[in-house]
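**Sequence, structure tokens**
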Amino acid sequence: MLEKEYVYERAMPRTTFVVRVRVEPSSKEVIWNEEVSDTGDIGRTLKTYKDCQILTSEDWVCELWLNGKVVEKAEMRKGALRQTYWGEERTFVARARGL
């Protein structure tokens, strides 16, 4: 079985982000599972975005607001995953992962 994961490579400091998402349309939630590494393992993050606008599992947007401003945004449009995280724009590349 294959599962999709999404990869973003930051140039400076050199860091790799590997993300898997699970979309829950009934609760308007997206579960974001992220592993971060450089020359070694930096850490893992599991977060749940709530109150997302979900059309399909390949077309959704979630925003985190703080003091009237969007500080974090995750979205998938036609299967392309993007994230804005405290001003940093990340565009992920999909790859298949064997289970």
